[in-house]
Every structure is written in C-alpha cells, then in structure tokens.
Write a structure and sequence with these properties.
By secondary structure, this protein is mainly beta. The chain is built from no helices and three strands. The chain has a three-stranded antiparallel sheet, with no helix packed on it. The termini are far apart.
C-alpha cells in the first residue's frame, strides 16, 4: 500500500486544491469551478495538490556560546 505524502487525513480546503489559486490578500481563492470563495471552503471537486501546501515554519535554533564547545 502506498503511503500518502502528508497522511491520509487531509482536511479539504481550496487553499491547496488543484482547481484554486490563492488571491493576493490570502483570504480568498479564485476557483476554476466556483469563482471567488473563502480560503477554507471546499466542494465536491476537491483535488489535493501537494505543491500548493505551505509547510510549517521551522522552530528557531538554540543559541550556543563558546563554553558549549569547549572540553
């Protein structure tokens, strides 16, 4: 069985649908099927596109001092 890229429990949203393009303000999506819709709206034609998914930001790296690297 093939494992899904981001798991099998992806909540549908037009933000990362194949048919939608995110607007400049980030609040609305221009959908090829339904026109202008909310970013978290979804319809029956939802098709997941992993390339449109925005990854979570990485946590900040801890700050080290010279004493941490001395023996």
């Amino acid at each position: 069985m093939k494992k899904k890229l981001f798991g099998s429990r992806i909540t549908p949203a037009c933000t990362y649908c194949r048919h939608g393009n995110l607007g400049k303000d980030g609040k609305y999506v221009l959908c090829e099927r339904n026109g202008i819709v909310d970013a978290y709206y979804h319809c029956r034609k939802f098709s997941y596109s992993p390339l449109k998914r925005v990854p979570k930001p990485l946590p900040p790296l801890p700050q080290y001092t010279k004493d941490d690297f001395s023996l």
